[in-house]
């Protein structure tokens, strides 16, 4: 595919800010820069000063639009492999928009979402999984998801896929020869060799598929709710966890004022504590969060932290909420263990059906580490994370891996039952093709559009 037009977009987030950046990519970038930019040092030539910030003004019909720093990067050693111009102007709504309009008038067109990255892919600078990783980096909300995305961008997943796919490529070539010249005395390839390759590949693909559940948690966070009656200590626990994890707290206001998410890291596991508005708000709002509301939040959660005040007797309300936990990953916390206890171990065992119960004091910051350990155990089932694990976090990648896996199994069955080689060849091809969709070696225009539509503007 040959790209001959020039695209432009505002690369920084909208709103008031110190600086804003307008980014231009394509063959006309330099011409546009020369048209609208006037350096303060009159004799500076943009082309002769690549990768330097040049101070000057954006000019529209001899009128200064803004004071800017402009940089020019000559392709192909750029993000898109095309000529790129970046204009650092004042942040805010007006400056960036005026400059973008001027750039468009001078011959660029507005970039589609993700189009800079799409060009980086189409021009062969990165493969598709790396392109997707750039977006994951931008949207990641926990440092764990950021790290995974970084590894994917570096090409860790790509090279694993390539390694597996190379074996298939070689096998396919041998199969083709064997089919074309069946009368050869020494067959190009034996069923045993093919089977050995397939079994190895199948296991590797399987391991990648298995990494998805863990990877998805790392990427999106484990959706966690804290439930319990008013005054049991939910806010206190949240504060204790926040302090313990020393996390960067992101509060994301949703469509309604109620929906707030906070991301915290517990033993390397990002918890997305959802709907904490009720916990954070004044007690009369908490009062309104009744049993029904608890039931709803429990149903939608990946992990439930149920809190009881152990200095008071169990109520019917507590017992009812406990029954909702039956098929859930959940932890029961007996809080306020620093006070005289009103709930006995026997009382609690009757209603918790073997779930783990942890005694804590949110006020005195006791037991928080045990919660951490329990969550870790629950998520990883005791299994330790290794730093070098390649993790699949993208559902699209998982689908392709599953297709490849099925085809490997089919090919194994075919070869095991001594079926004609050309039937197994079809399965080899499907597996090869499916893996290629992850890296973008085999990919349709439609799929590309779908993927890049999810990107943000200016990336
Ligand atoms: P929430 O309504 O469930 O969010 O409960 P809060 O966290 O607002 O706590 C209600 C009251 O219980 C506050 O006065 C807290 O200081 C107190 N509290 C919370 N945890 C403990 C604890 O472990 N021990 C004691 N003694 N008091 C606690
Ligand atoms: Zn509270």
TrEMBL record:
Do the record's keywords include tRNA processing? yes
Task: Name any one GO molecular function.
Answer: hydrolase activity
The reply on keyword Cytoplasm is yes
**Cell compartment(s), UniProt:** Cytoplasm
Q: Which domain of life is it from?
A: Bacteria
Offer one Pfam family short name for this entry.
MMR_HSR1
Q: Where is the TrmE-type G domain?
A: 221-380
Q: Where does (6S)-5-formyl-5,6,7,8-tetrahydrofolate bind?
A: 23, 86, 125, 459
Binding-site residues for Mg(2+), renumbered to this chain: 235, 256
List positions binding GTP. 231-236, 250-256, 275-278
Q: Give the binding site residues for K(+).
A: 231, 250, 252, 255
Q: How is the cofactor bound?
A: Binds 1 potassium ion per subunit.
Q: Please state what class of enzyme this protein is.
A: hydrolase
- What cofactors are annotated for this protein? K(+)
What keywords sit in the KW lines?
Answer: Cytoplasm, GTP-binding, Hydrolase, Magnesium, Metal-binding, Nucleotide-binding, Potassium, tRNA processing
Q: What is its EC number?
A: 3.6.-.-
What this protein is reported to do is described as: Exhibits a very high intrinsic GTPase hydrolysis rate. Involved in the addition of a carboxymethylaminomethyl (cmnm) group at the wobble position (U34) of certain tRNAs, forming tRNA-cmnm(5)s(2)U34.
Assembly, in brief, is: Homodimer. Heterotetramer of two MnmE and two MnmG subunits.
NCBIfam families from the UniProt entry: mnmE_trmE_thdF, PRK05291.1-3, small_GTP
Family of the protein in this entry: Belongs to the TRAFAC class TrmE-Era-EngA-EngB-Septin-like GTPase superfamily. TrmE GTPase family.
Tell me what this protein is called.
Answer: tRNA modification GTPase MnmE
Q: Which organism is it from?
A: Acetoanaerobium pronyense
* Gene name of the record: mnmE
